[in-house]
Amino acid sequence: MAADRGEERRRIAWRCRRGMLELDLLLQGFLRRGYDDLTAEERESFLTLLEFPDNPLLEVLMGRQEAVEPEIARVVRKIRSAAAA
Amino acid sequence: MNVERRKFDALIIGAGGGGLRAALQLARADAQVAVVSKVFPTRSHTVAAQGGVNAALANVLPDNWHWHMFDTVKGSDYLGDQDAIEYMCRAAPKAVYELEHAGVPFSRLENGRIYQRAFGGQSQDFGGEQAARTCAAADRTGHAILHTLYQQNIRARTHFFDEYFAIDLIRDREGYVLGALVMSIESGECLLIEAKATLIATGGAGQLFRTCTNALINTGDGIAMAMRAGVPAQDMEFFQFHPTGIAGKGMLITEGARGEGGYLINREGERFMERYAPHARDLASRDVVARAIATEVREGRGCGPEGDHVLLKVDHLGEEVVAKRLPGIRELALTFLHIDPAKEPIPVYPTAHYTMGGIPTNRFGQVVAPVRHGPEEPVPGLYAAGECACVSVHGANRLGGNSLLDIIVFGRAAARHIVGFLQENRYHRPLERESVERALEHRARWDRKGKGEPVAEIRRELRKVMEEHCGVFRDQQVLSEGLDKVKALAERLQEAVISDHSRIFNTARVEAMETENLMDLALATVTSALARTESRGAHSRIDFPERDDENWMKHTLCFADGRLDYKPVRTRPLTVDPFPPKPRVY
After folding, report:
1. Domain B446-543 has what CATH class?
2. Which residue among A17, A55, A64 places its CB closest to the CB of B143?
């Protein structure tokens, strides 16, 4: 189980590699500070967010556009607050 | 050779705009095409290109390809190859219309034609009035192009290997490139993709520098791979920097901030640009501002605990002006620094943006290298396009709007040439064991266990050394020290290990191989920069401030072992008269 979790985390880490530096910094920063504290449901929302194409993802994470689902909006807030650390 | 094999007509390494444009052309010509990409294709760095694509459509102001050609040659500081530049500028309108027909939603004028905006470096009538040459799909042109090309490739049945990392090219004794060894990042398994023709389209290498605008994926893998296969890297000393990126992070703070009245200060609070450019001050040209910032930091007047940046002040403009006229900058500062630029200054440092150098190619996308007869002998079966290639249409500096043009024009040109090559080379050539073994050994190197330094630390130091010793401030001493330091890091990398040896999604192994690639490119970059004793375009030497056309109007070729060679600039266009070198003033 522990090994599976490591695997899953590495898979997600690679999917946080994006086409734009802004997204890399936001997502990699969050992986280091914040991701591990998410609840199981919040992790699901985070995975949904990672499925967004780069440009819409940037819009949401930069706060230019509100995420429609409240669960996703909550994860977005957590990512943003981890960003400047 | 215990490795799974697959056969295709053509292999494309990299799924940005250049790779996908080529793949589409090939798939439509009924070739069997494999595209290998280390991330999901629509997450390639092309998505970050906001500006647009240049083409002399004359939809807004008078224009023609010949003026576009003049601007590009001048912008290249006369290091661009004029045959390739003529080809690109003539092909531009067709390339844009093809994208339009493929479905790219270009912004429109009221009459329905494609809207074109004015950009720096664009002129009418060979250096006259401002031209308007850039076609854009709002502020997400790269994104629109990439997604459109991806969808069209799915329709054309291009075969995608997503999340596969290319390790090395396979080459036989006669010099033919027969494909590549790649690795599934998910399973860690190797796969040998045999192809009659291979196109490298892996983008630039901004990650060479600590502060850069490039995504983490931009580690120049394809250029390093070509070097390991015996091809030199061309003109690597030419790297485009932007004077103001967010310090330690890299994102661009546009000139708009200084245009609106923002200014730079050092740790003493001094408006230092007054010393470097008494008249233009903070609005001096990009290279002057970038060098001034680097000089302040080098001379101990940098800000912050490490003294490694300067500050950009816009707080005196007031909250309303900042919110209204600089919303993008405000947003970046709020998100990444948690500071409001209307209240606090922004830490900035020059940020690396674009790799002008790369794999030498001709205007057909064929990789060319000095082998036996002359400096530009095609490497059979090997092609390159886009930022990883050096055609060279950008020469010593790239114009805004020409990078998206480069990828679509030369992605298409390479594919057209490959179609002809496939007609003449109908069968896969036999693989030679040694070449495959060598690639497999390269992959196995990171299975080594035991004691050693972590790779991540070496990568971090490399980027810092490159920034300090091969960034915007260059002279003999700084560069020689830089070369020694990079060589020392390269030796340390030989002994480094990774602690994770799992197979599945072993990102540490991928990052180690990326670091090897960056190391090879760093050596080529510093070596080339140290040798070029002149200032031209983006390569600016404090000790040799002038352009030296007599001795240096030539391309640098740097081999993997550090050996340098040179070849002349192609100053003869295809059909028009050459543009002879002139002082480059704007």
Report:
1. mainly alpha
2. A55
